[in-house]
């Protein structure tokens, strides 16, 4: 046995040397190569073999790994970097919204909105059974419910159910024809519990005005006829295509086991809660899943440790699917900050209602759920918008750290408002900040629908990226697509400028492009628990990489915003190039 061990070691070293010496399948040379490896300078070239990075180095070093069979790409000075990674997205439903009638957050005068909807329906978009369903609707419309009612509750709309789905995924509006189908009238609203009534917009006499949020919105959404499997598979393909187009080669699906007719905010998982997972499996089996999908399993905000067993059953049903992994669970801790929803849990009450939003978890027992997840080697990914929700999320992780000091890579996403006292806790507890910094802009959502209703102190801490970074937090990039664009280049530039149509939002919270490049590469890979496989260009990692149309290290911020991807590679194979 003593002789065998050295012999095995020598054989292993020989195989390793042979792999290193073997000719590359593909070399990309004469470029500016950003590896995302900490402290590593820009390189010139990359060699790829069997879908993995063989070596990164100078042109001379990489050319030495090529032979007559090697494919060669001259980058001609272009920037090459790892594929982008999105740490919070809903791509399949975003793909469906893209294929349907999607307002994409545009605010039109209500009469123009009616004409646009009629045109969409005429062109074959927007119908779900006999319901007309419009996606991507701006929250700015919810203040105009009287104007919506004046147009969409009479004439051609008197008997035509219509639903406007908010782009935030938490709110929406339904006309009287849809309310009738739902059996929601003044008597029904009056009979609701105070909590449920808070999710249904209504007048003083309890007459519903069409506005819904959170569980109330779930009630409306669940009655929209579901799309066919063929349509949803087409949506999944579209999701992959669009992400690859923007250079995104991995993402965290933030509610993979939830279907279109499931209640998201009062979700009760079963062993058959497969959501979009069968679609990912079919794409993978067809060789069409050119991205890593880290599938989070949504669980009820007040789940007990025992409730995780059913999620494990779902996970096991999809183990072994290529490019599909299951890092952990997703929890809604609160809702949204914008008026009139105001379901984000705040430390100080909203000025107009004297309420503090809705804390969906039970803070007395949430830590126990975090511990239970850790025992299964799962992370917890927490939706927290308000400062109170963020604080209670951190408290849950702190409870777990008292029992075991080892950080597990849990993450909190959105982080619209964070109390300064909690900035250092992210580093202390090893919690990753998954941020949608495309939202860090002076616009209707952050100014008109927030500023009048919260304290000046809370307003000054919207999307506090710089403060978190300065306190040592790991920042990871995210889109929350379809709430906003999946284009990481828009978000990277926005994180720097924070400017918008209504001014600059908290300029002191700007962070630099180097931090954002890391946020969408290695830091994001850590959030997905895939940092050993992807996230940087290092030997042995999968060859997911992109070639860009401009020098993102030197162009101004406006030009950075408009960055285009020229080529996307997944496992060493080109999966996107713009049509010539």
TrEMBL record:
CDD domains: YtcJ_like. This is Amidohydrolase. The keyword Hydrolase applies. InterPro entries: Amidohydro_3, Metal-dep_hydrolase_composite, Metal_Hydrolase, YtcJ-like. It comes from Pseudomonas alkylphenolica. It comes from the Bacteria. Residues 73-576 form the Amidohydrolase domain. Pfam families: Amidohydro_3 (PF07969). GO terms for molecular function: hydrolase activity, acting on carbon-nitrogen (but not peptide) bonds. Keywords: Hydrolase, Signal. Residues 1-22 form the signal peptide.
